[in-house]
Amino acid sequence: MAKSIAARTADSHEEGAEKTPGFFGRIFQFLREVIAELKKVTTPTGKELVQYVIIVLLFVAFMLLLISGLDYLFGQGAFWIFGNGVA
pTM for this structure? Predict the structure, then answer.
């Protein structure tokens, strides 16, 4: 079994298997792929951008209120369980 695997890998190297690009070749290939992907990107219109900003701000405000409320509740719970620190 090991002999057949070794023979197959040797055959694949001999039959003109594709040569892997060097360091700079991989960098240039990466940059070409990045540019190709960026060409697929569509920028939002002004109206969409304003809507997205409003949605993000509302979400951040909601999360701020939620975390503040939970912090207050857990703080009050800790004071109830352990006291105010007054002996």
Answer: 0.55
